[in-house]
Structure formats: structure tokens, C-alpha cells
């Protein structure tokens, strides 16, 4: 290829230095500098001129061309993390509490008893966030360091980039040259717009005509382009060459662009960078990364506010019982500090460390290999998803089309009977043909001839071009000359057409050559059939069909072939009694159905058509209408040849995964940039829409009245899946947002096609606002990033088409089927474990606070702490921390049971594991146990106050350990170790606690029986209640485990 011959003049450059190298005038500094310029008005998007061959004109500034998924930078990290922590009520509360200890009148104990726990909580959070940010930076750096080749010359800015086949475009560019002989190239845009069809792109004509790519450095020209915007489907610009006489000016449109994120599908191209960094079309369609706060954390924050209200009430009651004597306002503050344990400071650190454990367990799960947790702050969100919004291409499907069915009306051929088709084709081309017309031409055709006509029509009616590439053994020219099979690659805008042509090759009729005016087929006997292409009528979304008129060079016969959707072809073909029924049967199997027909034309008939067709194309007024009318004159009484069924291969186990999600009470919406017909077929094939569900296809609406009528028609449907296009969706949301979302949320499934990335994010946002439920977005492409970042829980599928969605997501998986286990097992366990852990930490603090309240009320409402110094710190750390934290290993059912019965997940959607009801139950348990222990110690102590401390504190520790054992549902060996270790630590530390506890007293029999009685009274009733509840009103999971 000619372009590859000038590598000597090219240099390698990483992606993140594309613009800093291309435009040396780009100001240095971090990305926040550019944001500051924009905020001050200096970065407003404006039309621009890119000068080529003008070294003196290089004043245009460009943003750095980097992918950045980090939430913070070097300067905002610490302030940002601290702000996100102290916006939680209880963290701010403990900060104020710790600061109050600097005032002598308010001090209740040593400063370290307040500042050490708070510092530990903040340190754990900062370290966790720092690790995640570093990991994110490393992942982004890997992408930003991808190397590209550029064309440069001494004294000139290196404006031109080389992009080779299967390489991703790093910036928005204008297409200048291609190595392809036909002067064009194909792009894969599924990562940008979600469409599976390849897009044809054309280079600037005057640069394509240059002898070599190196001549680009010699011409003086410029590109004028519109300001950066989010529209990925349109572009307006001009290319002007000044050094020609006269100057050449060409208009530029979307066909001349190479947007960042697309992949070159054919040849090698040269382009000039137009937009970069935050001005890229793909970046402008995505939102900035945000720090997500889980619903569970907000609920815990709400509970701490309730606890704070209780703290204030208790403090006021204590002062009121003192009749507000003396400096009562200082007494209120001292009581607030004394009962501060009501709000446990260890709650935040326990939950954060629990999240780290959940993330580690997810990464270590061998049944979902390759899963990465990129945001460890929201694993509980996975357990409460109500709406799943998924992309189609690359997420549900592999974007690999497979020919599945050929139907001739009386007989159908599937994958297992394709050898019969092959034998029919072989028999046609190996039998001896008669020299002239015989009576056999008038009788009913044999099955072989019917199959042959159908296969030949499929092999001729398309826009596919065979391309020959060097395979290391045969060079390109030789391969093209000999039609070398191993070197041939099919190129087309639609993967469906490639699948059809590949199938005809597999049965014996091979497309070996094509240009603008001719086509060559090879038969099983290696005979070359030549056809002249007379006319082509390309597929459009309005016509839903494509046609071609060809002349057989050997016989001179002219044939008009057509294929299209059954809804339009039914009125074109001759009457038959099987088309509608068989199309419905194949569509229910999720196949993309095409109806293939033909019509033989006499020479005079074609000449008459051509004259009228040319005349129509020359019309100034209503040209498209007149052209369509002329073509329709041919589209009558065509002979129906066959139906074809093509399937977009689903990812592994998509159907059972979607069924699991549906049984778990999760509604699945499919948001795709692909065509309506394609999206509908995939929804049926994946069983997103079940067989017994009707589908309402929302017709195209353009104004308010049409939208109103269509919404009324949709309202009359019941239990009906909805299919709607992006254009109609935009109109509905503009005029009837509330009504549309209310109806859509009632549907069992929704399919939105032709969606832009911005629309995907908008749908997620509307679902959150209108329903108040949690959403999960799943995608694999750059066009899914906005949706993933906007959702409550974003999951990226790391596919073969890049890692952009994976890098921006909270969780990354390698296959869609892993989503089922991620939600049903890990999401469910994370939520239930965190709910149990948070309530137990609150119970632990309420117990000791209740004891303090009882103690103060008995001793004349004195604001004197019951436990001081190490006792109060040790209670929530070494004595009870390990058993309580071991609840993060607890599980009510095995993972296999959770996957087998997804209905267990549905119970979590109501939020019962952490609700006001369960919170109140734990508060009552805490008050009962705290009062029992304190009053028991007061009744049973003999003479000294220090005995009250020994009896009550020991009973409190034993009660907590026994309560953990009561709460655990499935024992893990680490739980047993934690219980025994904590008890051993307490017994061993008694030797060093002589300042607070009488060591000689705890060795007496009196101490032992008193502690045993108090502990038994505080715990035994709860054990009895638990047994009775499990016996007479067992939870749903216990029925599965018994």
C-alpha cells in the first residue's frame, strides 16, 4: 500500500500527547487549568481554522487529548475526600464532638478517646480513596499511552496522523487520504453510536488525488470547521487549497470525518486532527465522573439523625430532672458528650471496611473471573436494583451475524441441512445443459433450480465488496488476480449482508469480485459468472428494502432482484399463502427476516425504465418523490424466491440471565443506537420480550398532537412491551414527560432504539426521579459511558471493542452472564451483611448508652461517666470489634440457592433488612439489655463502686459476644476464632485494668455467678423469641435451607 511506504518520515506518538505534540502552542499545565479557562469565558467553543502548510499560523489552542476517569486531581483529592466524609451527619457530629474537648468545661476524659477513633476512620477512608484513584490513573494511563504514527517535516507542526486497519481513532479528524483503491474506507462506529452497520467515509477529493501522502506536507491549505458540539451525526466545514490556480474549495460533511472512538475497518488512512480532549464528540456526550453515594449510606445517615434526636431528648430530660439548676446549659452539653456513644463513631469505619471485604470477595469469585470492583463505596447498591438498563451491541449480542434459515415456502433449510442446499447448487452447475429451449422450461421447476435461483439472488442482491489482502505467502496483487480464498475479506456497511454472502460462499456460489459496474461469482466447478450492474437502489430506513438490476453477460438476461422487510415486500410480491405466517414464525425465534424476490426484464422494458429513471433524477422539484415513483413502477408482481433468517449471536447465557433478573423483580430496558427492526429481533431472540407478550411499536411522532394520539393508543394496551425510537422519545419527553414515564414504567420490558448517548443518560435520570428506585446501567462501548456514570450502579462489560465503558464503570465484568451472580449473590449478601452489621454496631452503642443513662439517673443525674479511659475504647475495639465485624462473612443461604431462587432477591427491593421497623426492634433490644445489665449490677453488688464496674462491664462484653452468636446464620471458622480471641483478650487484659476493676474480686465465685445470672437474663429471652419465630413464622430463606 502506498501510504505504508513513507514510514521513514513518520514518528510514533502516544495518544495523550497527540495535541500537545501537534500544537506546541497548547499551554502546559494540569487539566483543571483548561476548566478554569472555560469558566472564565476563555474556553467557550468557537468555529476554528486549522492551517496546513502555514508554520507561522499556529495560534489555535487545543485541550490535552487524554481519557480521565478520576474523580479528583492532586490538588482536589484531600479537600474532596474530606468534604464527602463530613457531609455525612455523623462524621460532622464527631468532628464537633472531638473539637469540644479542647474546652476545659466540656472535657470528660482524655483527648485520645475522641481523636484517635475519628482519625482512624478518616485514615481508612483516605487510604481507600487513594488506592482507587491510583488504580484509575494506571488504567487511564494504559489507554492514553497507545502509540500512533504521525507524518511530520522539519519546521512544520506534525498535523497528520496515520490510522491503520483495526486501530481506534484517537481524536476527531478530517479524512484526507486512504490506501484503498476505491477511494473510501469503512468505519466501525458501534462504540460511538451503538449501530452495528459500518459507515462509509470519503476523503477530501483534492488530497486523495495527491501522488503520495508525503505531498500533504507541501501544500498550503486550511480546514474551516464548526464549533465543537455533541451532534455525532452531522458536521459542517470546508477544505480550501490556496496554492492551486484557482484555489480549490470543497464542502465537508459527516462523510469526511473520523470521530474519536471509531475503528478503521478497511485500509490505512491519513487525517488531520480537528478536535481533541474535552471537545471530542464522544467526550461531550459523556458526563463527568462523580462520587456516588449509596442509598444504604443515606439510610444509615438518616438513622444517625434519629439517634441524635434521641441523644438531645435524653440530655434535656436529665437536665429537666435536675430542675435546670445552676449552669444548666453547660450541663446539657456535658450530657450530650456523656451520651455521645448513642451515635457510634465505629459505624462508619465498620461499614467502610465491610465494603472492602465485599469488593475483595467479588474479585476472588472464581465463577465470575476477571470481575473488577472500581468503586468499592457502593457494593450494597447491587442488592437493591429495580431497573436494569442495558446496551445491545457487544453487551447482549456478539455483533456476529450467522445465517440460520432459508425458507422456500414448501421446504425450509436450517443449519443442520445446509449440505442439501450445497448438493442442489452442485447439481445445477455440474449437469450438462441443453443446447436450446426445451419443454422442460415450461413445466414446474425442480427443487434444485428453485434453490439455485434463491441462492443466486442472495449472492447478487447486496452492497458487499470482496477485498484481497496479503497473508504473508501470497502478495495482494497475486491474490486479487487468482481470487485467493484465504486472502479474501468481505466489506459492507451492514454485517447482515456479509453474513448472507458468506453463506452463499459456504454452499458453493462465491462472490469473488466487484466494482462499481460489474460483479463476478464463482461456481462449484470454478467457472466465473460475470454480471453487469445496471442500477442499484440502496436500502433506506424509509423504504426498508434494497434492489439491484444486473445483466448476465453469458445470456444477456436482465433481472431485477430485491430484498427487504416483510411489511413492505408483502405488497410487492405475487400473491401467496405462506409469507405472512412463516415471517411471523421466524421473527418469534428472534431471526432478522428478509424477503427475497426477482423480476425478469425484457431489453425494451429496461430501456423504458432507464429513460424515465434518468429523467426523474434530473428533476429540480420533488426529485425524491419522482424517483421513488419510477422505481415503484418496477416493484409489482415480483416472483417470491425465499425468506432468509439471520441471527445476531447472543452472548453466552444471555437468556437464562435475563430470565433470572426478571424473576428477581428487576425490569430490563434495552437502550441501543441500532435500528428498530434489529433491536426488536434481538429483544425477541434474547427473550427480553417473552413469547406470550405483545409488542407495541411506538410509531414515529414529530409534534405534540401526534405524541398525544400515540400515547392514548399505548395506554389502552395491557402487559405489553414497548419499542420506541429516539426521535419519538425526544418528542414525548418534551411534551408529555410524566405521562410517558408513568406508562413506560408499567411495561414488563422497554426497548429504545436509535438512542444517542445523551438520551441514554436522560432516561436513567428520569427513572431515578420518577420512581425513586435504584438503576443499574450495563454497557461495553464509549456511547454507554454517560448512562453508566448517571446510574446508581454502573457495570462495564470489557469486550473486544475497547475498555472505555469498563474504565468508567463502578464494576467491570467480562461477560453479561456474570451480572446474574454479581447481583443475586454478591449484591444480596453485601446489602444483608451491611444491614446486620450497621444495626449491631448501633445496638452495641445503645447498650452502653442505656447503662450510662441508668447509672446517671440512679446517682442523682450526675454527668459522670460510668466507664473511663481504656474501658470505653476497648469496648468498641479489641473486646467486641472482631466478632461484630465477622458478620460480613455471614450468609443466610448458599450462593447456589440464591441463583436458583432469584425470588429471594425480590424481598430486598422493599428494604426490609434495614428499615425503621428493624431499627426500632434493635433499639428496644438495646434498652432491655442495657437496663437489665445495669440494674442487675446495682442490685447484686455488695459494698464498693468498683464492683459495679466489674460486674456490669464483664456482663456487657459477654452479652455482646452471645448476641453475635445469636445473629449469625451460617458459621465461618473465622467467626469462631473472632469470638474466642475477643474473650481471651478481655480475660488477659483484666490483669492490666486494676485501675478500673478489682482484680481480686473477679477471681471470686460471687463475681462469676452474678455475671452469669445477669448475662443469662439479658440473652435467654431473645434466644427463646428467635426459636419461636423460626418455628412458627420462618423467613423465606429458611424454608430453602431446611
TrEMBL record:
Belongs to the cation transport ATPase (P-type) (TC 3.A.3) family. Type IV subfamily. The gene is ATP9A. It comes from the Eukaryota. Residues 807-1034 form the P-type ATPase C-terminal domain. It is an enzyme of class 7 (translocase). It comes from Canis lupus dingo (dingo). It catalyses: ATP + H2O + phospholipidSide 1 = ADP + phosphate + phospholipidSide 2. Pfam families: Hydrolase, PhoLip_ATPase_C, PhoLip_ATPase_N. The lineage of its organism: Eukaryota, Metazoa, Chordata, Craniata, Vertebrata. This is Phospholipid-transporting ATPase. Keywords: ATP-binding, Golgi apparatus, Lipid transport, Magnesium, Membrane, Metal-binding, Nucleotide-binding, Translocase, Transmembrane, Transmembrane helix, Transport. One of its GO terms (cellular component) is endosome.
Amino acid at each position: 500500500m502506498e501510504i505504508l511506504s513513507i514510514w521513514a518520515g513518520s514518528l510514533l506518538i502516544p495518544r495523550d500527547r497527540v495535541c500537545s505534540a501537534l500544537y506546541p502552542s497548547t499551554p502546559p499545565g494540569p487539566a483543571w487549568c483548561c476548566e478554569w479557562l472555560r469558566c472564565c469565558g476563555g474556553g467557550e467553543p468557537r468555529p476554528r481554522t486549522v492551517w496546513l502548510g502555514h508554520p507561522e499560523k499556529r495560534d489555535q489552542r487545543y485541550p490535552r487529548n487524554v481519557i480521565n476517569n478520576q474523580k479528583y486531581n492532586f490538588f482536589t483529592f484531600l479537600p474532596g475526600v474530606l468534604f464527602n466524609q463530613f457531609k455525612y451527619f455523623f462524621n460532622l457530629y464527631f468532628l464537633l464532638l472531638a473539637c469540644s474537648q479542647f474546652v476545659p468545661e466540656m472535657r470528660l476524659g482524655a483527648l485520645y478517646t475522641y481523636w484517635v477513633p475519628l482519625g482512624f476512620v478518616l485514615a481508612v477512608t483516605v487510604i481507600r480513596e487513594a488506592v482507587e484513584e491510583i488504580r484509575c490513573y494506571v488504567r487511564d494511563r494504559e489507554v492514553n499511552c497507545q502509540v500512533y504514527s504521525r507524518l511530520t517535516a522539519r519546521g512544520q507542526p506534525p498535523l497528520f496522523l496515520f490510522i491503520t486497519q483495526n486501530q481506534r481513532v484517537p481524536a476527531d479528524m478530517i479524512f484526507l487520504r486512504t490506501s484503498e483503491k476505491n477511494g473510501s474506507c469503512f468505519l466501525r462506529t458501534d462504540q460511538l453510536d451503538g449501530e452495528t452497520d459500518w459507515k462509509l467515509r470519503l476523503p477530501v477529493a483534492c488530497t486523495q488525488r495527491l501522488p503520495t501522502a508525503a505531498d500533504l506536507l507541501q501544500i498550503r491549505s486550511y480546514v474551516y470547521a464548526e464549533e465543537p458540539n455533541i451532534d455525532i451525526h452531522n458536521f459542517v466545514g470546508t477544505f480550501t487549497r490556496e496554492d492551486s490556480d484557482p484555489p480549490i474549495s470543497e464542502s465537508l460533511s459527516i462523510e469526511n470525518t473520523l470521530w474519536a472512538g471509531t475503528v478503521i475497518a478497511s485500509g490505512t488512512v491519513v487525517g488531520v486532527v480537528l478536535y481533541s480532549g474535552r471537545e471530542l464528540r464522544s467526550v461531550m456526550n459523556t458526563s463527568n465522573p462523580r462520587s456516588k453515594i449509596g442509598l444504604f449510606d443515606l439510610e444509615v445517615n438518616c438513622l444517625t439523625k434519629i439517634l441524635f434526636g434521641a441523644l438531645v431528648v435524653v440530655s434535656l430530660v436529665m437536665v429537666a430532672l435536675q430542675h435546670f439548676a445552676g449552669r444548666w446549659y453547660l450541663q446539657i452539653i456535658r450530657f450530650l458528650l456523656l451520651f455521645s456513644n448513642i451515635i457510634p463513631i465505629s459505624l462508619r469505619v465498620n461499614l467502610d471496611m465491610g465494603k472492602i471485604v465485599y469488593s475483595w470477595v467479588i474479585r476472588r469469585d472464581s465463577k465470575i473471573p476477571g470481575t473488577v470492583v472500581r468503586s468499592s463505596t457502593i457494593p450494597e447498591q447491587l442488592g437493591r436494583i429495580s431497573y436494569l438498563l442495558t446496551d445491545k451491541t457487544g453487551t447482549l449480542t456478539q455483533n456476529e451475524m450467522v445465517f440460520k434459515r432459508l425458507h422456500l415456502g414448501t421446504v425450509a433449510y436450517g443449519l443442520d441441512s445446509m449440505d442439501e442446499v450445497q448438493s442442489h447448487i452442485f447439481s445445477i452447475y455440474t449437469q450438462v445443459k441443453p443446447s436450446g429451449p426445451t419443454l422442460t422450461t415450461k413445466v414446474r421447476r425442480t427443487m434444485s433450480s428453485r434453490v439455485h435461483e434463491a441462492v443466486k439472488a442472495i449472492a447478487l442482491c447486496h452492497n458487499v465488496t470482496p477485498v484481497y489482502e496479503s497473508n504473508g505467502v501470497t502478495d495482494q496483487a497475486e491474490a486479487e488476480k487468482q481470487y485467493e480464498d484465504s486472502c479474501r475479506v468481505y466489506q459492507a456497511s451492514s454485517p447482515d449482508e456479509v453474513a448472507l454472502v458468506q453463506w452463499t460462499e459456504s454452499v458453493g456460489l462465491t462472490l469473488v469480485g466487484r466494482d462499481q459496474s460489474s460483479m463476478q461469482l464463482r461456481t462449484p466447478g470454478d467457472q466465473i459468472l460475470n454480471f453487469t450492474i445496471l442500477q442499484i437502489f440502496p436500502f433506506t430506513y424509509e423504504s426498508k428494502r434494497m434492489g439491484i438490476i444486473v445483466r448476465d453477460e453469458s445470456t444477456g438476461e436482465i433481472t431485477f432482484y430485491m430484498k427487504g422487510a416483510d411489511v413492505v415486500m408483502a405488497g410487492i410480491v405475487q400473491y401467496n399463502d405462506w409469507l405472512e405466517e412463516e415471517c411471523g414464525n421466524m421473527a418469534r425465534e428472534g431471526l432478522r427476516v428478509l424477503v427475497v424476490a426477482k423480476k425478469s426484464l425484457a431489453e425494451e422494458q429496461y430501456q423504458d425504465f432507464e429513460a424515465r429513471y434518468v429523467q426523474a433524477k434530473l428533476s429540480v422539484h420533488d426529485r425524491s418523490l419522482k424517483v421513488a415513483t419510477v422505481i415503484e413502477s418496477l416493484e409489482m408482481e415480483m416472483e417470491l424466491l425465499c425468506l432468509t433468517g439471520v441471527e445476531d449471536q447472543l452472548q453466552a447465557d444471555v437468556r437464562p440471565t435475563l430470565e433470572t433478573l426478571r424473576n428477581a423483580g428487576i425490569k430490563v430496558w434495552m437502550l441501543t443506537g441500532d435500528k428498530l427492526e434489529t433491536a426488536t429481533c434481538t429483544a425477541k431472540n434474547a427473550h427480553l420480550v417473552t413469547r406470550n407478550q405483545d409488542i407495541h411499536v411506538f410509531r414515529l411522532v414529530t409534534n405534540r398532537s401526534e405524541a398525544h394520539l400515540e400515547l392514548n393508543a399505548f395506554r389502552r394496551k395491557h402487559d405489553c412491551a414497548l419499542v420506541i425510537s429516539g426521535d419519538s422519545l425526544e418528542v414525548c419527553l418534551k411534551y408529555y414527560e410524566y405521562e410517558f414515564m408513568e406508562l413506560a414504567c408499567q411495561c414488563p420490558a422497554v426497548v429504545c432504539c436509535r438512542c444517542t448517548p445523551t438520551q441514554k443518560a436522560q432516561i436513567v435520570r428520569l427513572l431515578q426521579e420518577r420512581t425513586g428506585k435504584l438503576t443499574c446501567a450495563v454497557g461495553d462501548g464509549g456511547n454507554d459511558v454517560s448512562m453508566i456514570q448517571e446510574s446508581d450502579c454502573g457495570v462495564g462489560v470489557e469486550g473486544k471493542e475497547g475498555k472505555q465503558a469498563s474504565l468508567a464503570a463502578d464494576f467491570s465484568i467480562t461477560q453479561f452472564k456474570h451480572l446474574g451472580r454479581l447481583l443475586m449473590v454478591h449484591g444480596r449478601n453485601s446489602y444483608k451483611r451491611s444491614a446486620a452489621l450497621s444495626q449491631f454496631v448501633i445496638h452495641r452503642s445503645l447498650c452502653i448508652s442505656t447503662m450510662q443513662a441508668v447509672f446517671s439517673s440512679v446517682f442523682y443525674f450526675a454527668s459522670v461517666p460510668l466507664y473511663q479511659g481504656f474501658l470505653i475504647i476497648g469496648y468498641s475495639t479489641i473486646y467486641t470489634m472482631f466478632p461484630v465485624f465477622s458478620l460480613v462473612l455471614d450468609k443466610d443461604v448458599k450462593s447456589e440457592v440464591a441463583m436458583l431462587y432469584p425470588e429471594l432477591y425480590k424481598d430486598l427491593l422493599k428494604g426490609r433488612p434495614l428499615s425503621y421497623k428493624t431499627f426500632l426492634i434493635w433499639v428496644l433490644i438495646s434498652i432491655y439489655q442495657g437496663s437489665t445489665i445495669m440494674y442487675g449490677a446495682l442490685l447484686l453488688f455488695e459494698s464498693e463502686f468498683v464492683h459495679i464496674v466489674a460486674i456490669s462491664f464483664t456482663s456487657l462484653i459477654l452479652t455482646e459476644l452471645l448476641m453475635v452468636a445469636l445473629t449469625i446464620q451460617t458459621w465461618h471458622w473465622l467467626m469462631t476464632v473472632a469470638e474466642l480471641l475477643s474473650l481471651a483478650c478481655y480475660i488477659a487484659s483484666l490483669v492490666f485494668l486494676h485501675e478500673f476493676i478489682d482484680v481480686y474480686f473477679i477471681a471470686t465465685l460471687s463475681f462469676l455467678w452474678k455475671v452469669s445470672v445477669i448475662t443469662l437474663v439479658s440473652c435467654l429471652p431473645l434466644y427463646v423469641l428467635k426459636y419461636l419465630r423460626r418455628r412458627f413464622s420462618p423467613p423465606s430463606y429458611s424454608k430453602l435451607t431446611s
